Amino acid sequence: MPSSEIQPLLSATHAKPALYNNPSKQHDVEGAIVIDLTDDPKTWSKLVKWRIILILSLMAFNVSFSCIAVVPISNHILCSLDSKSHSKSASVLLVTAWELGEAIGPLLLAPLSELTGRLPALHLANAVFIVAHVLAALSKNLLLLILARAVAGLAVATTVLNPAIVGDMFVMDQRGSAMAVLTVAPILGAALGPGISGCVTQTLGWRYVFWMSVFMAGISQVLLLSCFRETHRVVKTPVGIVKQSLRESITKPIAILYSSRTLKALCLSHGMAFAVYCIMTVTLPDIFERGYDQSMSGAGLSFMSYTTGSCVSILLCHATLDRISKRLGQANNSGVQPEYRLPLASGGALLLPACIVLYGWATVIHLSISIMLLCLALLGIMLTLFSTPIFAYIVDAFGDYSASATAGVIMTRGLMGVLVPLAVGPVIEVLGYGWSFTMLGASCLILSLLPLVMVMHEGGKWRQWIDGPNHLTILPFQGSYNNMDAVQLNQVKLPFGKPGCRWKGCPMQS
Known about the structure:
It is a single chain. 72% of the residues lie in helices and 1% in strands. The protein has helices at 15-20, 46-68, 74-81, 88-104, 106-116, 118-137, 142-154, 158-169, 175-203, 207-227, 239-250, 252-259, 261-291, 296-301, 303-331, 343-365, 369-398, 402-462, 486-490; strands at residues 33-34, 235-236. A two-stranded antiparallel sheet has the order 1-2. Helix 8 crosses helix 18, helix 12 runs parallel beside helix 18 (402-462) and helix 16 (343-365) packs antiparallel against helix 17.
């Protein structure tokens, strides 16, 4: 296999070793100051790396807790702030407004982290997160609360930066364990959040749920200031150049999404699966409270079943994700390829539609509550088994641009997480849960499984192709760029051909 076929898409990671191993290159280039490039995060001790992973896990836990805690109490909040309104769409929007903000936030946070470093982006996001939840706790009307939820989603950094930080610190065949741990934290937050919020609301009131999020975010801020180390070394430039570069970088996630066939397919696939999760979260409280006469806290505790299934899936990924990649690389004599991360995801995508249909019809038939909890556990297994390898693939395939690529995925899934539940609500009212979820399962089979299978079989070829745009500042191949310094690398403009053609000068043409 030609060496270019195993290069990460849109990656400049090959430039980093040259800088780390050549201290003489740490000099001023047109006013630029290179900072501490000899301290390669991949050479840090395990203690330092896993300390950072634990801090990120705490932040991810709080994000997930805050996002999902409002689900079982949304109807109660709606009645408290606007007793005259009983709109189901308003309740759904109160839950999914977070995803709308999360769809936009990565467009700024991901390129900001690549330009200024991961730590400044985390500081900014966490500060905005705290302000948004203070505003939510003090809200006097529903519109202000929905706005605060959207701003909180806008400030979510861990979802898009965690995979990139793992890529900064770990080599490719050691990332599976770190990714698995970072996936467990939000799963635990999603499990505990609904139950705790239900109990707190019944005893103290719903506003205390938001104050809990403020408290945990404050602890995270202290840990960021005292224990976190920058993992993404950058070239510091004058403020004017930074502003100009930031403006250009904000469009990078969209540009990479537009340019990459693999990312388009994964965005569609993962976005549909995430929409299924959002639909489950907005329908579950009504199903348990009205169909099974459960309280708010009881409906919230039902999410524990989903979390149990997710944890089973995480343990499976932890045990097999790196092992499968290595074995496939040895079997194909090609080394570890990003596509070798996806066999587990294909299994989850194949079985997910059946779990969706079972969830819908179990509600219609009114099966026992234990069967419903089993359905939730199966959904947790399949959704997590589907999602975790996809983010591992993005880290491997996109290298230094994994944060921007992840931002593209988060942006797409956030939009689908808002729009699809709003569209499914009226369908459920007309057709009922059974046929509505049958249609949803069929849609998921087409939109989630097929794109994933295409990436598994054609991703290696697609990663050698760029569809545009004309001014994307990226470096997908090693070529003759080895001897350039960091500033020159960031100024490389690739000459693209017509859409659908390989870029001119691609080593694959020879």
